[in-house]
Amino acid sequence: MAPAPVTVPARPIGDVDVAAAHARPTGVAELDRVLGGGLVPGAVVLLAGEPGVGKSTLLLEMAHRAATADAPALIVSGEESAAQVRLRAGRMGALSPHLYLAAETDLAAVLGHVDAVRPGLLVVDSVQTFAHPDVDGAPGGVTQVREVAAALIRLAKERALPIVLVGHVTKDGSVAGPRILEHLVDVVLSFEGERQSGLRLVRAVKNRYGATDEVGCFQLTEGGIEGLPDPSGLFLSGNAGSTPGTAVTVSLEGRRALVCEVQALLVASQQAVPRRAVSGVDAARVAMLLAVLERRAGWQVSGLEVYTSTVGGVRLADPAADLALLLALAGARRDLALPARTVAVGEVGLAGEVRPVPRLSQRLAEAARLGFTRAIVPAGGESPVTPQGLLAIPVTQVVEALRHLSPTGGDG
Fold it and tell me: With left for phi above 0 and alpha for psi between -120 and 50, is residue 344 left, alpha or beta?
């Protein structure tokens, strides 16, 4: 193969200008947290989520705040008409004179709008609805999605234009379309939330410009979407774990510590196979904790129907919630409660041991900030920094933690 002309000569790495790679805030603080400070010029971001979760609403809010006289924002919708987007913008108060709307499904038309508006931000909603004029196949097909995304990425890099693509997801929650789509873009964000709850979480699955261990919290309301810089209070009931069958833990969502409440209910079953129903927690984890409770602590739970749930619609995947969930199950079994303003943090093993968890000091600081005065924590691992006013109670086995349950939930 003969050498081809180079576009830009190679330079020593120290001479490369990094000013163009600095992130610029979008104006949505929780989104900037996940992105790593904002959008980098020329970056291509893929935002994926289930239908109706609020992807278009979030990006409309972002485009509204990012639109300025010097750098207008352009939203090109392939799923809704401009009038439909305009109605939503009116409800949200996002009628910026520098925010432009267009309804298209032809990629060539999108490029024409970009030439006419010269935006500082382009939102394409969604990438599965657009068609490349030079490629055969229906919109949403593997070839079409790949070529449309590749053309938009070239546009972003050539013009230093940040582009946000909206993507659909499959039944299992993965991004729909060819897997190469996730490899082509710079950032992949997952937008999660239950339809019955207004809580929405944005996670970074891939981020070439920042960390992937951050999470942004939002509240979806009738008037639009709002960032939640302090969402812990959403996941607590008025009893805050002092009622039989409830317990409070501190989970890590990315780098953020969230105080959450878990609830359990155990009742006699009239069926040959007792029912197990979970909401917000992993069913396999609950089954394991029930086995540990029965085998290691001697609490009979087989033959009972078990119902477990979280407060506020949060999903708990952090193993540090094991101890609180086990205490909630045990409390529901014998109508016992923890002392008021107590949290429980720790991973539970099959041998009944309570294992250390990462960043325990941060978890305890968050619990103390919300007024909790006791914490049942693992005895091993690094010694945590205990905030003033919070008593840390170390335990090595679940049987030790179970002793803190009492019939009244008092200090005993």
Answer: beta
From edge to edge, which strands make up the β-sheet containing 304-310? 276-279, 304-310, 256-268, 246-253, 342-344, 374-378, 391-395
CA angle at residue 117 from 60 to 87, to 5 degrees?
Answer: 30
pLDDT confidence of residue 70: 87
352: tokens are 């009944």
Classify 120 as helix, strand or coil: coil
Distance CA 247, CA 241 (A): 4
Are the C-beta atoms of 91 and 222 separated by less than 8 Å? yes
User: DSSP E strands: which ranges in 137-280?
Assistant: 163-167, 187-192, 199-207, 215-221, 224-227, 246-253, 256-268, 276-279
d(CA 410, CA 390): 17
The pLDDT tens digits for 208-257 are: 988 888 889 998 888 889 998 888 777 887 776 679 999 999 999 888 89
Q: Could you tell me the domains of the chain?
A: 24-229 (3.40.50.300), 233-402 (3.30.230.10)
| Contact criterion met (CB below 8 Å) for 376 and 280 | no
| pLDDT at 412 exceeding the cut of 50 | no
Strand segments, DSSP code E, in 78-161 are: 99-103, 121-125
Between CA 339 and CA 242 the distance in angstroms is: 6
Evaluate whether 248 touches 236 at the Cβ level (below 8 Å): yes
pTM: 0.80
pLDDT tens for each residue of 100-113: 999 999 999 999 99
Burial of 368: CB neighbours in 10 Å, binned 0-12, 13-18, 19+: middle
Mean of pLDDT over the chain: 90
Say if residue 20's pLDDT is above 90. no
Q: What is d(CA 353, CA 292) in angstroms, rounded to the nearest whole number?
A: 10
Beta-carbon neighbour count of residue 166 at 10 Å?
25
Q: Under a CB-based contact definition with an 8 Å cutoff, are residues 409 and 327 in contact?
A: no
